[in-house]
Amino acid sequence: MSIQLTCPNCEAILRLADAMAGRMGACRECGGEISVPQDLESFRPLQERPLGKATLDDIVKELARRGETAVLTVLGDRKKTRDQRTDSTILSQSESDTQIGLGPGVRQYTTEEIPPTRLEQLFTGLARLAQMRIEAERLAQSKDAIDPAEGAGSFDSKSNFEFKGDPLGMSLADFRLRHERQVEGRRRRMPWCSDESPGVNNPELHSEAWHAAAGIVHARIELPFENNSPTVGGVRTSLVLYQFVDERLFQVTAFLPPEGLNQVVQALNIKYGEPQSVNHEPRQMLWWKLNSSIEVSAGRLHPREDAIVRYFHDELLAEASRRRPSGSADL
Predict the structure, then answer these.
(1) At CB < 8 A and 24+ separation, what contacts does 193-197 make?
(2) 10-residue block means of pLDDT along the chain (331 residues)?
(3) Which of 173, 231, 237, 319 has the greatest number of C-beta atoms within 10 Å?
């Protein structure tokens, strides 16, 4: 192990062995005398220090060294926070002279001087999420609370999104009833579900053989030859796929032409407000509620690739993902 010191005379960066702790030495550059401290931990390069001995400022500086942009908000000492006896604290941002007042006992470290608009977007999204959690707790305590026995599939418009009237978490039985119809000129009733032919790969339903054993069902409400796929935000899709796990709707995926993406995003902004998260490369936007999310991913014109809009229930999607067979099981 080694430590890193700066010569007080010439400011050269020196690396010294641990054995030098508490001893006197000489700078290799200027020959000046150097006193090596007994406690070496604070002089080690950040990447060599144990995490348990790193300060909050060290942690943020290490993230900056890795090229990450991060905000670390500390709510203060837990006991003092509970007793509400902390004094108002203003702590300067790491690697910046900017100072931000965040209220009693709250401190903030950032890897760089982040633009105010970006900070506002971040904290506005967190505030919305916190408010949704508060409302969900109130709902759970009220006489109109959802029966816990209904589990993750239960629907609450404050917690879950719905796609054109189909709420995430709805039952497969309710879905069949809602979209039941006779196909004109055919001895065929809709919706079309993959459990009609279990254990079979079906490209038109994006279903795979392992889905049946995993309790996963894919469905669509129109047939390919009908050329009548649903619209999203006024844009005609090439396919809308409904996906269920344990007979609960965990995801709706809409495939649409890339040139129609802006129109869909405008419609989402009008209905749900600005997205909580935006990524520019690749272009991707995310809206979220307490239990579900909407993700919009841009496609490409050359070579042509569909844009995708996904509505998904967080817990149910995670459960469906866990059931995917691992590669080691196929050896």
Answers:
(1) 193/217, 193/218, 193/219, 194/218, 194/219
(2) 71 74 80 73 57 74 78 68 36 37 68 77 76 65 45 58 94 94 85 93 95 96 90 94 97 95 94 89 88 92 92 94 81 65
(3) 237
User: Domain map of the chain by residue range?
Assistant: 1-44, 56-114, 115-145, 152-326
Q: What angle do CA 185, 187, 190 make, to 5 degrees?
A: 95
pTM for this entry: 0.58
The span from the CA of 110 to the CA of 93, in Å, is: 5
Report how far residue 201's alpha carbon sits from residue 214's, in angstroms, rounded to the nearest whole number: 14
pLDDT in tens, 289-305: 888 999 999 988 888 89
Say if strands 248-256 and 277-280 run parallel, antiparallel, or are unpaired.
Answer: unpaired
Check residue 143 and give its pLDDT: 41
Residues 81/73, Cβ–Cβ less than 8 Å: no
Residues 6+ apart with CB under 8 A from 137: none
Tokens of 118: 């970006």
